Amino acid sequence: MSTGMEVCPRCRGTEVEMQYQGKEDGRVIWSILHCRRCSFSWRDSEPPESIVPEKRDPFFNVNPDDINRYPIVLAPTP
Ligand SMILES: [Zn+2]
C-alpha cells in the first residue's frame, strides 16, 4: 500500500512516481509505481519478496552509483 514515502525496492532511491492506479467502485485498490533512478516499475500489491527491500534477494538489487558494475550484455542498435 502507498504510504506517501515511497522508496524503490530495487535501488532504494526516493525519486518514485505514481504511474497508474487501479480502481474499483472509485476506490484505489493498487498502484503502479516507477523509480526514475533505476527505471524499476512495480505494483504495490506484489508479494513482499518482490517489493519490500529487506525481503528482496539482494542479488536482484542495483546500485546506480556503481554503474560500471553492470556491463552492456547486448549493445543497443546504433
Ligand atoms: Zn530504483
Attribute tags:
single chain; 78 residues; mainly beta; 3-stranded antiparallel β-sheet; 5% helix; binds zinc ion
Number of helices: 1
Strand order of the largest sheet: 1-2-3
Number of DSSP strand runs? 3
SSE run: EEEH
- How far the N terminus sits from the C terminus, by CA atoms, comes to 41 Å
- What are the segments in which pLDDT stays under 50 over at least 5 consecutive residues? none
Radius of gyration (CA) equals 15 Å
Average pLDDT rating: 90
- The helix content, as a percent range, equals under 10%
The computed structural class is mainly beta
Strand content: 25-35%
Shape: globular
Q: Identify the quaternary structure here.
A: single chain
Description:
The protein is mostly beta strands and 78 residues long. It has a domain at 1-53. The chain has one helix at residues 48-51, and strands at residues 16-24, 27-35, 41-43. Strands 1-2-3 form a three-stranded antiparallel sheet, with no helix packed on it. A hairpin with a 5-residue loop joins strand 2 (27-35) and strand 3. The chain starts with 15 loop residues before the first strand and ends in a 27-residue tail after the last helix. The mean pLDDT is 90. Bound molecules: zinc ion. Zinc ion binds next to loops.
In short:
By secondary structure, this protein is mainly beta. It contains 1 helix and 3 strands, in the order βββα.
